[in-house]
Each structure stands twice: as C-alpha cells, then as structure tokens.
C-alpha cells in the first residue's frame, strides 16, 4: 500500500519564497535600499524617502519585520528600523549586482559621487573601496580569496588605527562584490573596522541619511600615500 504524496514545499523552500515575496515590491525594495546606509531609520523617515502614506508604510514594515529582513529598536517614544544584520546587507548588495547585469554595460546611470564612494551597510564601497581592496590583496594584507586578514595585514591595519575584533561572530573578512564596479571591496568585520577608522581619522565624512561618502582633503592625501588610490 503506497502512502499519499506530500506535495507541500520543504521548509527551506517556503522560507526562501517568503523572503523573496517580502522583497518583491517596489516600496519595500526602496526601504531596504535606504537602510543600506547602515543606520536606523524611523517609519516617518522611511515614508518620506519612499513617498508613501504612513498607513501603507506600516504594512510594508510589518512584512519586512516578519520576514526577518528588518529589526525594530525602541528608544524612548521612537521606534527605529534597521537591517537585521550584515548578512541581509550582503544579500541586498549581491542582488543589486545581479540586477545590473541586464543593463547594457558599460553605460551606468549610477551618480558619479555615489559610484566614487558610498557605504555598503557598515563598510566602504565604490571605486575608492575597490581600489583599496585591490592593493590590500596585491600587497598581502588579505588572502587571495579575501576571506582572511594576514599577519602582514594585521600589522599594517594596526598602524592605521584599525581595530579588528578577535572575537567577532560575523565573518572576520570577506570579498563583497561591488554592484557598480563589478569587482570586490572589503566586507566583514575588517571592512567595518576600516570604515570606522577612516571616519575617526577625518579621512571621510558620511552624509546623514544617505549612502554617499565624501573623501576629505586629508583623506585624499592619506589614501594616495597609503594605498596609491585617488580619493
């Protein structure tokens, strides 16, 4: 006697479909892209950037929260929304790269300032970041695969004031595909620490609410001196 067939999709496939469904709506996609600047935003701020009513935004945010793509942090009377983690940011960055494949390269509509330097969640992206990654790889600061910082890299990064976390629970170092340059920039804990150090040293300035990053005069000189990269 044969058992009845179970046609229900496996749990993994169902979870994947749920996440894809949560992202497959233009307003929700714009919210996720806005949160790629690594900061936490209020619902009101997200309403403004997406240009939708508060009630509509609330429904979208609920779906994104339920899918595990966002988390909500309460502080006083305010509620802030941010990406659930660097893995979600990595997924979005990769999807941006895949989305660009349909374009008839090499023409790009990405604004030059954003293409030059921007944040990818909590690390640096764009032409400058790709140039830094290339030099770090060439000079042996990171492994060929970009999945670890070498001893040489640790010494050199320490000279720049980059504080790596030896107990990090995320990837210590990773090659993150840059969606505008189609090459890699530095991600993981090392990428986040590098961005923090550059900001603390006054080499770059972040624009609140935007992913665009401005390289300062001091930063341009320093990046050329250390990495040979034009800031």
From TrEMBL:
Origin species, per record, is Kosakonia cowanii JCM 10956 = DSM 18146
User: Per UniProt, what is one Pfam family of this protein?
Assistant: HTH_20
A biological process (GO) annotation for this entry? response to lead ion
PROSITE patterns cross-referenced by the UniProt entry: HTH_ARSR_2 (PS50987)
Query: Do you know which PANTHER family this protein is assigned to?
Result: TRANSCRIPTIONAL REGULATOR-RELATED, TRANSCRIPTIONAL REGULATORY PROTEIN
Q: Which GO terms describe its molecular function?
A: cadmium ion sensor activity; DNA binding; DNA-binding transcription factor activity; lead ion binding
Q: What is this protein called?
A: Transcriptional regulator
Question: Where does this protein have coiled-coil stretches?
Answer: none
Taxonomically, the superkingdom here is: Bacteria
Residues covered by the HTH arsR-type domain: 8-103
